[in-house]
Amino acid sequence: NAGVTQTPKFQVLKTGQSMTLQCAQDMNHNSMYWYRQDPGMGLRLIYYSASEGTTDKGEVPNGYNVSRLNKREFSLRLESAAPSQTSVYFCASSTRGQNYEQYFGPGTRLTVT
Amino acid sequence: GDSVTQMEGPVTLSEEACLTINCTYTATGYPSLFWYVQYPGEGLQLLLKATKADDKGSNKGFEATYRKETTSFHLEKGSVQVSDSAVYFCALGLNQAGTALIFGKGTTLSVSS
Predict the structure, then answer these.
(1) Contact status of B104 with chain A (Cβ, < 8 Å)
(2) DSSP B42
(3) Is A62 on the interface with B (CB under 8 A)?
(4) pLDDT tens digit string along B2-47?
(5) What rounded mean pLDDT belongs to chain A?
(6) Closest-CA distance of chain B to residue A84, Å
C-alpha cells in the first residue's frame, strides 16, 4: 500500500519554463489537495478537488492549474514558472469516513532560477 | 473566519524535558482537531486527533485534549527524545465535504542530548 505518491522528488526550472507535478493515491479517497510550504508560512492550500470531476481554488492559486485526471490522480501544472514559486509542494488526500484527516505525499522540492 | 494559531518556535529542549506546544482555534460548528508531525525531509504524518469536545488524542507519548471552553488543543509530552525533533502542525477540520484542513504555521522542536 503506497499511500500518496508524488513525482518528481526534486526539480530545477528556469524562469518561464513549464512543468507538471504528479500525484496519485491508492486509498480510494474522494478528495485531493495541493499545498505549498515556505519557511515561516506553514502550509498554504493551492487547489483542491473535493471529488472526481471537481476542482476549486485555495488560498494561493495564481500561477497554477490543476487536473483531476481520475479518482486516483491529481496533477499540478506551472505554465510559466517564476522564482516566487520556489517551494516544497505537497499533495494530500482524504476521505469523509475519517473526519477528513489528510494523508500526505513525500513532497516535491522545486527551485526556479 | 476559521483559523488556527499555534505558538511560534523554535522550541529547544534537552532530552527528557517536558513539552507543551500551544494551539488555539476559531471555528464555527463542531470541528475536528489534529496534530501533524513533519520530520526533516519528509511529508506530514498524522500524530493524533480528537473529533469532539473533551476527547483526548494520544500517540507515541504525545497527548492533546480538545477543550471547547478555551478553544484549545495543546500538544504535550512528558519526556521528549532527540528523535522527537521535528516540525509540529496543529490543524482544524470543518467536517464538511469539499473543505480542506486549516493548518497553523508550524512549530519547530529541537531536542538535544
Answers:
(1) yes
(2) S
(3) no
(4) 899 998 889 999 999 999 999 999 998 889 999 999 998 889 999 9
(5) 92
(6) 19
Q: Which residues of B touch A101 (CB under 8 A)?
A: 32, 34, 46, 49, 93, 101
Look at the block and give the residue holding cell 490543524: B91
Give residue-wise pLDDT tens across range A33-81.
Answer: 999 999 888 899 999 998 888 999 999 999 999 999 899 999 999 999 9
Looking at the complex, does the CB of residue A101 fall below 8 Å from at least one CB of chain B?
yes
Please tell me whether residue B82 adopts helix, strand or coil conformation: helix
**Residue A27 touches partner B, C-beta closer than 8 Å:** no
Is pLDDT larger for residue A11 or for residue B96? Answer: A11
Closest by Cα among A108, A109, A107, A97 to A27: A97
Closest-CA residue to A22 (of A58, A70, A74): A74
Asked if A42 lies within 8 A of B104 by C-beta distance, the reply is yes
In a 13 Å sphere around the CA of A20, the CA atoms on its Cβ side amount to 10
pLDDT of residue A9: 95
How many angstroms separate the CA of residue A69 from the nearest CA in chain B?
A: 18
- Give yes or no for B51 touching A (CB within 8 A): yes
Min Cα–Cα distance to chain B from A19, Å: 21
- With pLDDT > 90 as the criterion, what percentage of chain A qualifies? 78
- Whole-angstrom distance, CA of residue B48 vs CA of residue A2: 21
Tell me the average pLDDT across A12-28: 96
